[in-house]
């Protein structure tokens, strides 16, 4: 298991972030190449390996405590479920958005309206069974 840190931006700078990610089977180079240069909030990301192996969480009560969050035990952590990782499905970012776990009561028009309300344009849409 390899670990790498995506350092697009540094801890105290508002236009900075430090993300710790664990990549299995040496795919960190592939992940970094797919993410480096991609635009996020109007700015190109710069993804590099860090000299640090882990992100240090601030101590309780420290003024920077709100700037750092550990999501490793979050119930929304999508790779915690057994069998959720499929390493053959690693692709560069694209204009295609894949959604899953959509309740059967949600219709295509519901999703189109949802995306349109945030300024997105839906060019094509398909439900898979």
From TrEMBL:
Lineage top rank: taxon: Eukaryota
Organism: Seriola lalandi dorsalis
Protein name: Polypyrimidine tract-binding protein 2-like
Molecular function GO terms recorded: nucleic acid binding
UniProt xrefs under Gene3D superfamilies: 3.30.70.330
Signal peptide: none
Chain residue ranges for the region called Disordered: 59-87
Coiled coil: none
